[in-house]
């Protein structure tokens, strides 16, 4: 069983806020933090939130200096309603985890059922004992639907039970002015416009203050036993009160149905909210649970992964993959936020994290989702073009560093807009998807257009100097080194982007599918030749003395920061040292050149990669959660098995063990995708290139074995590695020529290598 469980969980504020994240419910459209329905004491903080992926308002982002093109307005994901509230009174005594005596408490996440469960055995101050079981589900079958099943069982008495269920539309976002990862100001972004009660269903319609978007939340309370009920409208809220009598051992159940709909997807918002509620109510609860199980059974079937011999790591990996399916948008209107739908960290923005750390998982296991991620970038292509013009470019598309609806949200441009590599990351993800699927229709419909517009950006951004194509004043993935010339990662990715813009054109031309692309882009053969020339003459920094690819032109000129001298209370560096101080040192927040050596390993020989890895390892703090997984993959590629395993463990356990001390703000979705890559691309040695599928599975000495499953072209393939053998099985699809341990094989059914 795929379960994560905590018994007798701590009741201090830090652990409760952590559990709000770890046990949240989401389905890619909506997310609900795991707050106590009854709330906490007034002196305790909580991030109480319900979110819709891609639903936002505009917020002020003032700049001290009013310079041209600086971002002064951003988008922010909103807390859209509070439909979690349920208060229980046992013979007049209010249930609270902080009063009376808690005799037992357990929290469980069931990753096969797609539900969370909170179980409490509670004795009231006057000595009455009650069992409370609370099951929650964010439906994968009906995305706007969230369910709370709340059971109350008197253990040693019979008597009156009162239940107060609330539906609150007047809500605000969490803010912390001292943390750059969450909102720094408090503002009422959502304004209640109407409250309606129809057939005992409450509807609250609200509108954003600036973005002109609307949301409608609907709640229906269904009780398993008749009692006295009353529904009252309050200021921005609706409260329903139930009073009934239950006998000792009898179970009273409240089924609380929530529907959340937004105007981004539902143009006829009021009617479509009602239709979704009718659909939720007309289907038996058990059928909804079965639909949830069926969806997840298909998910786990396609991405089956298993580590033998390390139960804790196996649990952590499955938890991470489950969070990815909970977090990812299921339509082209949304993407994957840096914190999923588990919290408000990074304000619900989408970053390069998606393309480089999370989309690879979906490309290999859930293609419809991967296609939606690409289509989302296509839907904001016009904004990317507009962003390029703001940055001074006459042509091309510059994707925003952080965004929801397409406009740049990054106010600190040295570590934001200057990260031009995000446009190359988007292009890279399209190529990776094509190589894995050979889906020409996606190239024709949107992919090739994005490749051409991003290629045009590099042509306008770069310039020729002494016969080489240079790209100046950019920031690479390492945010401790900003505004540099010829960042290796950026240049090699731009080279790849330029070449694939040309290749995609010729692929479509050969297939007779080129007319749409020419019409949309007005691309010419002359421009394609310019792309090819720039790619061929791209300057890739290389230092003869060290035998490495310098991160940029000036990196090796800087002082080296001895990382062993940094006190623990001064980490992460970005919170304790001025950016200018950090920029003057050879110190990396995360993998940069090392990441380039993973994704584009054929750009350099193995010895250069080996020397680069050794060099950058000494100056990298891994202050970013995106870092250790990449170091694990490249260490695997170099045969550094102990290092690969150490870095993998740090990555896999980041959220369950709260190693970065900020999981309360939300999960680290990119790291979760990186954990998957560290197994499949790292230990499994998977690479998908133009020449086909390559595998180099090796087994960490700490494990007895492992296996994973991938989709490649029309095939589903299982890779299993034990101490005795490597077994590759074709589960579905046509036979494939694949490369294993450097040799080519024809995989027709099963291949066993001893």
TrEMBL record:
Any GO molecular function: glycosyltransferase activity
Stored InterPro entries: 6-hairpin_glycosidase_sf, 6hp_glycosidase-like_sf, Gal_mutarotase_sf_dom, GH65_N, Glyco_hydro_65_C, Glyco_hydro_65_M, Glyco_hydro_65_N, Malt_Pase/Glycosyl_Hdrlase
Domain of life (superkingdom): Bacteria
Residue ranges annotated for the Glycoside hydrolase family 65 central catalytic domain, each copy included: 319-676
Active-site annotation: 479
Keyword Hydrolase: no
A Pfam short name: Glyco_hydro_65C
Amino acids binding substrate: 352-353, 589-590
Keywords per UniProt: Glycosyltransferase, Transferase
Domain Glycoside hydrolase family 65 N-terminal: 11-262
The Glycoside hydrolase family 65 C-terminal domain, residue ranges: 686-745
Gene Ontology biological-process annotations: carbohydrate metabolic process
Recorded family membership: Belongs to the glycosyl hydrolase 65 family.
Protein name listed in UniProt: Alpha,alpha-trehalose phosphorylase
